[in-house]
Write a structure and sequence with these properties.
Length: 526
């Protein structure tokens, strides 16, 4: 009897281990079969929604569904990890998805979501975080998101808030965030550090910062000065921009207006001549023309620098792959072109279209539409009808398979992943608003349906590993906060009714969108 009693616990433990192992293997098998083998299913509304109003309603429902998944499994953390129904804090744990979703929810008049996020905003402590802070990402996402929501909720959608006191924390928290960040500009040149440790008020000591990271702060910090009446914030970013607008040494401006991607914050000098309208450079050029749109009396130098850079893009960096009618913006190493492009460059179509309105020059409209069409072709020529992360178009030294793909597609897919990026949808938005040609609405709808079809999982949306594969297509990663602020916002606005925050090609504009899709009120109409 004693031996039997002693044997029972061991036997029960062994049984428990087998059950745990079986459960674990079952979960793994479920993930593999549901994610790897399952064929994507086109949503039933894809053909049912025909009118712009019906399609806007669908986009709103997709937004609400994505919000519910995030709220259930990740709020108030930064983002949802949709495959595991857990959360991540890649943006310092301050609730990036909530902050970035607020403006979109306000535009869609999703009252319950607006109320939830407004309740959350005052609870954020921007002085506390356990992780390094990226000044650029924090500015465009948090500062841009809160200032935009403030402008919207005190302006065109003020009816969503009964008491002004509900909105004021957006401005108060924006100022608190700026106060926590402003030590970044304490360098010999005023060019800010890239990575910060807020609790110690220190940088990581790396003197390199990118053109995009330095050049994409001015809109948000200037708007903060405008709203608070405190000139300090505007002064900080104006000083930071001086070396950007007059790059040294001269060899780091290989073509007029095209500057190197990296600058030393201690010397104010650029350290290379690698120029790009893609990673490392993109939003620097984007903000040149947007700052002029924000205030045409104060930013003539920005306008002039954009015009010079745009000419170099049109004459040098815009490349047509051999045997195709496509046009993509490539990168230069300072001497030659590298014949590569990426999804990020697809913002440029919209930026040129915006500039054509600001500068009243139809050449930029034509060129912007051409870039937008090429990015559309980058989408529809893949199996999923979604554009890849990175492409190339020079066959020298490539294997036979890639050369054949170049002939078939007009480009070679170098990184086949799709990471929920919004740049092509953004350019569709500007193209439609400028021309009112319904084909851009059809392109946007086709892209939206494809993205939902291939990235939707139970509680959210996940990046996919290969846009040129229907099955055996691994999903991975996180649902980025810009999925709420950019992709779904631009998709909605393409079909939405007229509103004062819409880009208006034939009339006056009172708003300009930051690089994260957050509309900000301008100083005077343009």
């Amino acid at each position: 009897m004693i031996k039997l009693r002693r044997a029972f616990p061991a036997r029960r433990a062994s049984t428990r281990r087998r059950l745990v192992l079986a459960f674990f293997l079952g979960c793994v098998w479920w993930i593999i079969t549901s994610v790897l083998f399952a064929a994507p299913i086109t949503p039933e509304w894809a053909e049912r929604a025909v009118t712009p109003g019906e399609r806007a309603d669908v986009v709103k429902e997709v937004f609400k569904s994505a919000w519910e998944g995030y709220y259930k499994h990740a709020f108030p953390n930064d983002e949802l990890h949709p495959l595991l129904n857990t959360y991540g804090n890649s943006r310092n744990g301050w609730g990036a998805s909530a902050v970035e979703a607020l403006g979109t929810a306000a535009i869609m008049e999703a009252q319950d979501i607006v109320d939830t996020i407004l309740d959350f905003i005052p609870t954020i402590d921007f002085h506390r975080t356990k992780t390094p802070v990226n000044l650029f990402e924090t500015t465009i996402r948090y500062l841009g998101g809160m200032l935009s929501a403030y402008d919207l909720l005190t302006g065109p959608v003020h009816h969503l808030v009964r008491k002004r006191e509900r909105v004021e924390p957006l401005l108060v928290q924006s100022q608190k965030l700026a106060e926590a960040l402003k030590f970044a500009f304490k360098t010999p040149t005023g060019v800010p550090w890239k990575v910060l440790f807020l609790e110690k008020q220190e940088s990581d000591g790396n003197p390199s910062n990118s053109a995009a990271a330095v050049g994409s702060l001015e809109l948000e910090w200037t708007r903060l000065s405008e709203l608070t009446g405190l000139l300090e914030y505007r002064t900080l970013v104006q000083k930071a921009m001086k070396p950007m607008l007059n790059p040294r040494p001269k060899r780091t401006e290989p073509f007029p207006g095209i500057i190197g991607n990296w600058i030393n914050v201690n010397t104010g000098q650029f350290t290379d001549a690698w120029g790009s309208w893609g990673p490392g450079g993109d939003s620097f050029y984007e903000y040149l023309i947007k700052m002029y749109a924000y205030d045409q009396t104060s930013y003539d130098v920005h306008k002039d620098r954009w015009i010079v850079a745009a000419k170099s893009v049109m004459n040098v960096l815009a490349e047509t792959p051999r045997g195709s009618n496509l046009k993509f913006i490539t990168t230069t190493d300072g001497k030659s072109l590298d014949h590569l492009s990426s999804h990020l460059e697809c913002f440029a179509g919209g930026n040129f279209i915006l500039a054509s309105k600001v500068l009243n020059d139809s050449r930029y409209l034509d060129f912007g539409l051409e870039l937008t069409e090429s990015c559309h072709e980058m989408y529809v020529r893949t199996a999923t009808r979604i554009g890849p992360e990175r492409i190339g178009f020079s066959p020298e030294g490539w294997p036979k398979k890639q050369k054949q793909q170049l002939e078939d597609l007009g480009f070679v897919i170098l990184d086949p992943s799709y990471q929920l990026r919004p740049e092509t949808m953004e350019s569709y938005y500007y193209a439609y608003r400028a021309t009112k040609d319904p084909k851009y609405q059809e392109w946007a709808w086709d892209t939206f349906v494809a993205i939902v079809t291939h990235t939707k999982v139970r509680n959210g949306f996940a990046p996919i590993s290969n846009v040129n594969r229907i099955r055996w297509n691994w999903k991975f990663g996180r649902q980025e906060s810009f999925f709420f602020s950019e992709l779904l916002k631009y998709a909605y606005l393409i079909f939405a009714d007229e509103a004062e925050y819409q880009f208006n090609y034939d009339g006056l504009n009172n708003w300009v969108f930051n690089t994260e899709g957050h509309p900000l009120k301008v100083t005077r109409p343009w």
